[in-house]
Each structure stands twice: as structure tokens, then as C-alpha cells.
Specification:
It is a single chain. This protein is mainly alpha-helical and about 675 residues long. Among the domains are: about 55 residues, no CATH class; about 90 residues, EF-hand (Recoverin, domain 1, Orthogonal Bundle); about 100 residues, Orthogonal Bundle (Recoverin, domain 1), CATH 1.10.238.10; about 90 residues, EF-hand (Recoverin, domain 1), CATH 1.10.238.10. The chain is built from 30 helices and 10 strands. The strands form 5 sheets. A two-stranded antiparallel ribbon has the order 1-2. A hairpin with a 3-residue loop joins strand 7 and strand 8.
Length: about 675
């Protein structure tokens, strides 16, 4: 080939298209290409392949350090070699658009580029265009340097090719603005807001990211293979490829399996899905032993491919150094109950060690922003924590190795508290979820095919009223659960005119929840989410409860005395107080809900004696019966121990008091 860069880009795009790829040539496709002696291939003899290796060896490769220190206040990837002027020009435009040196471009950053290249729509139209652009690159809210390079080099309809002269014009059109001075306190400021998530969703997304080896936003057959084996598949590579191809074919895609389809799959307890418990998902996150990939018999990989694989393995092993082990040790020390994630309470010592000195309420707000940055509503996973302490930008909280060791020494070694003796839920009807076997994986995968993949994109710009609503919501959300129960909402109801009894309010609250959209406005069986609360106070019709901005500002101050005062009217029932005390004792981490692990001591105390897997199945059925996808909230627990039917687990007051007694 001897054409120009543009001509080669067109040829390369055709090569990718012929092999069902939209981004690049993977190892399997490269092996197929150099072994293909037809007009569509590019067959290379072993001698030619060795010549390629010798030619590559004569060029000086870029120096790789074993554990490169992150660039101060910048997450921009390493510059391209100096001999590529076009790449340097693109990078200069990127850095000029990225005014605060975050290492990525938001919709606001990209707007001048869009206008210079022909866009003339409204803010809302641009927000939609930017969302589609991010989705194209497998992101929910930003464009990285590599994505920007691909975009301006892509001459297809999906790209936005810019010549060198156009790039220089873009440079001149953008004012030179210095990056803002970093704040003195290390605090995470998210680039935008993501949809509210529960810990299970965050766990599923962590599994998806771990499987997504190329970071493309979709899973290939090779990516999904560990998941298939974990859930029962034991066929050959060829059989798995056929099943995966059928799945992709049925949904009209050659790219792979998207996040939303994956979430739906592992949450589906029917015969059409492949439900995974939280414990099974965590196992998928654990490092797998290195196994030697079988060499294809028909077309053995050339020397070049083997060398590339060796280099990749060396790079991976270099990245997994002692620093990662140190970070993981700090994470485990903060995670005292070994939940697999950190709550606001867990992270507070880390925040104080790294400069935070605010009140509990201020930390709660900071932690909420931190969780939003990583796409969660209330917890930080290990991968998120690793990114946070490795991020030297304003959005991160970089810690040196010595700082991490100091954090280790500052944290006392505390053993997990012994769970109180408790009584366990009755054995629910046998309805264990059917495991995915090799024969049923294809059926289940194909039946979930055709899902419309979408990304929830929320603009990073919020109006002042929305911020007021969020402040009120957090003030009402006593346990930081991410949703409001009838008890949480009662003070708000009284402040806005309600004066009925507890029973009348419960009926009103149930009607409110039923009117809201499940999943976005309300959480089944639990309460009202932030979006549901916002729609309520913004609704001026008879169905809503519109609140003026001035009243919203006054509400937190009015609610504070109510939260500090002893709950006489609301806690007039001693039995209710007793049940709440048991719930609080079981709720390790003060999450506001009980997981299977939290409820296990209760189950054993009330008669359960099965294995962890059997208890997980029982717990999932209990949650399903009460319309909860995450865990057992207080209201559900109260209903359970007050239910004397076969479906419940009634406990007398004396039995409840025994649950609170120290274990002998």
C-alpha cells in the first residue's frame, strides 16, 4: 500500500467492516487476514512475517515504565510519537477544548467544536447529539482523547473528519484559557450525574467492565466466555461462538452484548434469563487463574501474534504491581464487614486522612457526589476506589504509596462484629432458580435478544430548583438509602398540610407510590426515588404537591428540629421500636436495608440450617414476594415479623428481645 492517510483510513474501515468490527482489528481477525490467500485476504508467508518482526525490531519502541506515575492534574493519555504532526495537532485541539485539564470532554467542552464543524441546533438538540456520540464510543457522559482522535480521523458518516488546516482553524478560534487552580482539599467532583443505582446494579456494572476487556462498551464472544462457564456452559470454543453469533444475529448486531441487555439477563429469574446472586457476581470479579488458550489446529498463530500476546501479558503483569495490592489492602481495611463495597461510613476515615474536615451532613453530600461520579447511588466498589486514588486530576484523590501505607497504619485492625443470635425466616416454597446449563444458555440468551440498548444520559448542568429539591430529599432520607419510605415522607407531608393519622398517611403514601413510574419514580415495595420526589413537588396539578422555591429553601431548617426531637407521636408503639432496634442491629454498615448476609443470623436463629447457596435462594424469594430487588427495607422487615401467616415469620416481643441479647 502506498496511498495517503485518508485513503488508508478508508481501506482500513472497509477491512473492519468486512470482519464485523467498528473500531479495529483484533487478534483473531488479524490471524484470519494473514492466513487468507483469497482476493479478500492478505496472505503472508512465515518468511514475510519474520521480516515484519525484524523491521519492527529495528525501530525504537516507546519506553514503558513498570508503574508510571500519573501526570499531575491531568488524565490525558501519553502523547503520540513526535514524528506524527497530525496527532500532535489533534491533541493540541483536545487540550484546548479541555479547559480544566480533566482528561476528557463534556458536552459543554465539545460544543465549540460542534459549532465550528457545522452544528447550529439548540442546547437540547446538542445534548441529544452528544449522548449519541458518547454511546458510539461506549461512554455515558464524556469523550476521551483516543475517542476524539478517532472522531476527527473518521471520514465515514459516523465520524467528523477534519483536515489539518481545519484543525489549525479550530485552534485559532478557541481562546487560550488557563486551567483553573485546583482546590486545596481533595474532593471528587463528578463530570455529570448518572441514573441512581443500587449496590446490585453497581456490582453488575463492575462485572460488565471486568468482562469488557477492550473497554468498548459491548461484550464479544471471548469476553462473555468466562460468564458462560460460570453459569454452566461447558462446550467448545466453536459451540460457544455459534451460540453467541445467534444471539447477536437475533438482535441485528455484529458488535456484541451491551450493558442493558447484560443487566436484564442476570436479573431475570425466569427460565428465559440467567439470574446470578450477588455472591456469584462477586466470584466473577475475583481474579481467575491464568490458563493457556488452546492453539487453533487449522491456522496456528504466526510469530507476530505470539510476540504481541507476550508483550500484552508483560504489560498487564507490570500494571498489577505492589501498588494495586496496597490499594486493595486499604480498601479491605476500610470495608470492615467484607461487603465488597464501601459506604459513606466506611469512607469517612479515608476522607479525614486525606483532608476532609466537614460535618456529617457535608460528608454525606460529598460522598453522594463521589458515588454519582462512578455511576452508583450509595457505595464505592474496589475498581472505583482504585481509580479514585490513582487519579491525579481535580476529579480524583491521588495518594502516593507512602500516603496509602500511612492510611493503613492509621486504621485500627477491627474484627467484624459478631452477629447477634437471631431467629430465621420460614422455609419458602421450593422455587430455586434454574441454573444455566450448556443446553439452555443459547435459549436464554436468544430470548433476551432484541432488547433496545440505551444509555441513561443526564445533563451535567442542573438548575437551582433541582438542587434545592435534592437538598430536601437528602434531609428527608434519614438512613441515606436513596429512597423515601412512608416514615421519611411524613414530616414533609405535615409541613405541606397533611394532618391525618398514621394509617391514613400510609394509605396516602401507597397511592403516591403507585402513581409514580416504577424504576425511575419509585422503588417497588420500598418507597419514592429522587426523580419521583422531584416530579411530585414540581407538579402543580391536583395529583401533585407543588412547592415554591422559597418553601423548599425553608424546609431543611424546619425538618431538622423534627429529626432531632424524640419521636413521640410516630414511635408510640413499643413493639415497633423493638422491631426497629432488631433491624438496626442486623443492618451492618447502616445501609437502610438488609442483605442476604445481614439476614443470615436472623434466619439461623429462627430455624434455618441450610447452605449459603440455599439461603441466598430463600432470601431472593422473600425479596421477590415483597417486591424488592435490592434487599429487605425496614417496612418489609416489620411486615415479615408481624405476619402470622404461612408466608410470614411472626416473632413475639420476648423473641424480639432475645434477638437483641448478646450471643453466649
Amino acid at each position: 500500500f502506498s496511498g495517503s492517510d485518508q485513503e488508508w483510513q478508508q481501506e482500513f474501515d472497509l477491512l473492519c467492516g468486512d470482519r464485523g468490527s467498528s473500531e479495529g482489528i483484533r487478534l483473531d481477525a488479524f490471524v484470519g487476514l494473514v492466513n487468507d490467500s483469497s482476493d479478500d485476504g492478505c496472505y503472508c508467508s512465515e518468511e514475510e512475517l519474520r521480516s515484519l518482526l525484524q523491521a519492527r525490531a529495528q525501530t525504537t519502541p516507546p519506553t514503558l515504565s513498570k508503574a508510571p506515575a500519573p501526570a499531575a492534574k491531568s488524565a490525558v493519555p501519553r502523547r503520540a510519537p513526535a514524528q506524527d504532526p497530525r496527532h500532535e495537532l489533534i491533541e493540541a485541539v483536545f487540550q484546548q477544548l479541555d479547559r480544566d485539564s480533566k482528561g476528557y470532554l463534556t458536552a459543554k467542552d465539545m460544543r465549540p467544536f460542534a459549532e465550528q464543524t457545522g452544528f447550529s441546533g439548540s442546547d437540547q438538540e446538542w445534548s441529544s447529539e452528544f449522548a449519541l456520540l458518547c454511546e458510539q464510543f461506549g461512554s455515558s457522559q464524556c469523550i476521551l482523547l483516543d475517542d476524539f482522535v478517532k472522531l476527527v480521523n473518521d471520514s465515514s458518516d459516523a465520524g467528523c473528519y477534519c483536515s489539518d488546516s481545519e484543525l489549525r482553524n479550530l485552534q485559532q478560534a478557541q481562546p487560550q484559557i488557563a486551567a483553573p487552580t485546583a482546590p486545596p482539599v481533595k474532593a471528587a467532583a463528578p463530570p455529570g450525574l448518572t441514573p441512581m443505582q443500587d449496590p446490585r446494579r453497581a456490582l453488575i456494572e463492575a462485572v460488565f467492565r471486568a468482562l469488557d476487556s477492550g473497554g468498548t462498551g459491548s461484550l464479544t464472544a471471548r469476553d462473555m466466555r468466562p460468564f458462560a462457564e460460570q453459569t454452566g456452559f461447558n462446550g467448545s470454543d466453536q459451540e460457544w461462538q455459534q451460540e453467541f453469533d445467534l444471539l447477536c444475529h437475533d438482535r441485528g448486531s455484529t458488535g456484541g452484548f451491551g450493558l442493558d441487555a447484560f443487566i436484564s439477563l442476570v436479573n431475570d429469574q425466569s427460565d428465559d434469563g440467567c439470574f446470578c446472586s450477588d455472591e456469584e457476581l462477586r466470584k466473577l470479579l475475583q481474579p481467575r487463574p491464568q490458563t493457556t488458550q488452546p492453539t487453533p489446529s487449522k491456522a496456528p498463530a504466526p510469530v507476530a501474534a505470539k510476540t504481541t500476546a507476550t508483550a500484552r501479558s508483560a504489560a498487564v503483569s507490570a500494571a498489577q504491581d505492589s501498588r494495586h495490592e496496597l490499594i486493595e489492602a486499604v480498601f479491605q481495611q476500610l470495608d470492615r464487614e467484607s461487603k465488597g463495597y464501601l459506604t459513606a461510613k466506611d469512607m469517612r476515615p479515608f476522607a479525614e486522612q486525606t483532608g476532609f474536615s466537614g460535618s456529617d451532613q457535608e460528608w454525606s453530600s460529598e460522598f453522594a457526589l463521589l458515588c454519582e461520579q462512578f455511576g452508583s447511588s450509595q457505595c464505592i466498589l474496589l475498581d472505583d476506589f482504585v481509580k479514585l486514588v490513582n487519579d491525579s486530576s481535580d476529579a480524583g484523590c491521588y495518594c502516593s504509596d507512602s500516603e496509602l501505607r500511612n492510611l493503613q497504619q492509621a486504621q485500627p485492625q477491627i474484627a467484624a462484629p459478631t452477629a447477634p443470635p437471631v431467629k430465621a425466616a420460614p422455609t419458602a416454597p421450593t422455587q430455586a432458580a434454574q441454573a444455566c446449563t450448556g443446553q439452555t444458555v443459547l435459549t436464554r440468551f436468544c430470548l433476551v435478544a432484541g432488547l433496545k440498548l440505551f444509555l441513561w444520559i443526564i445533563s451535567p448542568w442542573q438548575d437551582p430548583r433541582r438542587e434545592l429539591i435534592e437538598v430536601v430529599f437528602r434531609a428527608l432520607d434519614s438512613g441515606g438509602k436513596g429512597y423515601l419510605t412512608a416514615r421519611d415522607m411524613r414530616p414533609f407531608a405535615e409541613q405541606t398540610g397533611f394532618s391525618g393519622s398514621d394509617q391514613e398517611w400510609q394509605q396516602e403514601f401507597d397511592l403516591l407510590v403507585s402513581d409514580l413510574c416504577p424504576g425511575t419514580g419509585s422503588l417497588h415495595g420500598q418507597g419514592i426515588l429522587l426523580d419521583g420526589f422531584a416530579s411530585l413537588v414540581n407538579d402543580s396539578s391536583d395529583e401533585g404537591c407543588y412547592v415554591l422555591d422559597s418553601d423548599l429553601r425553608a424546609l431543611p431548617n424546619r425538618l431538622q428540629p423534627l429529626s432531632q426531637a424524640p419521636a413521640v407521636t410516630q414511635h408510640s408503639d413499643p413493639r415497633q421500636d423493638l422491631i426497629e432496634a432488631v433491624f438496626t442491629a442486623l443492618d451492618w454498615g447502616s445501609k437502610g436495608y438488609l442483605t442476604a448476609r445481614d439476614m443470615r443470623p436472623f434466619a439461623e436463629q429462627t430455624g434455618f440450617s441450610g447452605s449459603d447457596q440455599e439461603w441466598q435462594q430463600e432470601f431472593d424469594l422473600l425479596c421477590q414476594d415483597r417486591g424488592s430487588a435490592r434487599g429487605f427495607g425496614l417496612d418489609a422487615f416489620v411486615a415479615l415479623v408481624n405476619d402470622s401467616s404461612d408466608e410470614g415469620c411472626y416473632c413475639s416481643d420476648s423473641e424480639l428481645r432475645n434477638l437483641l441479647q448478646p450471643q453466649s
